[in-house]
């Protein structure tokens, strides 16, 4: 019995170097493939980057959009910026580019174009969409210490980001924003408040809207305006 146990132990030890060698080969091949992929991602970045700044600037983004046959105002370009966690509107750093394209497994323009539909699905998941919605506001803060966005830009952003989800609410709110004179800009609290309004309030009857709750004042005014329109 002891000899049998010894043989089993010996057999186990004899396969260990083979298993270890196979694992090392797999890791080495995987590392090389990852390195090659990152090299292609970097090369793609530099094909669009401005040589003097080392960034993909607005012109580079327009060229990228042209190559992908996507309009530069398409919401999916904003989604791409969200995926990269890009900090400055109209610019991509190499680090941001790497982060986004590696996550999308895209190292060519064609692969990036093919990844856009899946990216759109990812963003539209409720857990992701609220983050994307908040990001879209921050992304449009182009000046240092800027905390609000002018009404005209907000109307465009609402239509781009939220229009396909809550068409009626967005159309009415944009109409209200354009005719009212109390607000020249919108801040983040008001921006997020409108999203919660869309997801929580029955529309257009507004039957469950309670002005006593902590809604931004602009939404109280919007609801009053809506009620006056119906009478």
Automatic annotation (TrEMBL):
<dbReference type="GO" id="GO:0000151">
    <property type="term" value="C:ubiquitin ligase complex"/>
</dbReference>
<dbReference type="GO" id="GO:0045116">
    <property type="term" value="P:protein neddylation"/>
</dbReference>
<feature type="domain" description="DCUN1">
    <location>
        <begin position="36"/>
        <end position="227"/>
    </location>
</feature>
<dbReference type="InterPro" id="IPR014764">
    <property type="entry name" value="DCN-prot"/>
</dbReference>
<feature type="compositionally biased region" description="Polar residues">
    <location>
        <begin position="9"/>
        <end position="21"/>
    </location>
</feature>
<dbReference type="GO" id="GO:0097602">
    <property type="term" value="F:cullin family protein binding"/>
</dbReference>
<dbReference type="Pfam" id="PF03556">
    <property type="entry name" value="Cullin_binding"/>
</dbReference>
<dbReference type="InterPro" id="IPR011992">
    <property type="entry name" value="EF-hand-dom_pair"/>
</dbReference>
<dbReference type="GO" id="GO:0031624">
    <property type="term" value="F:ubiquitin conjugating enzyme binding"/>
</dbReference>
<feature type="region of interest" description="Disordered">
    <location>
        <begin position="1"/>
        <end position="21"/>
    </location>
</feature>
<protein>
    <recommendedName>
        <fullName>Defective in cullin neddylation protein</fullName>
    </recommendedName>
</protein>
<comment type="function">
    <text>Neddylation of cullins play an essential role in the regulation of SCF-type complexes activity.</text>
</comment>
<dbReference type="GO" id="GO:0032182">
    <property type="term" value="F:ubiquitin-like protein binding"/>
</dbReference>
<dbReference type="InterPro" id="IPR042460">
    <property type="entry name" value="DCN1-like_PONY"/>
</dbReference>
<dbReference type="InterPro" id="IPR005176">
    <property type="entry name" value="PONY_dom"/>
</dbReference>
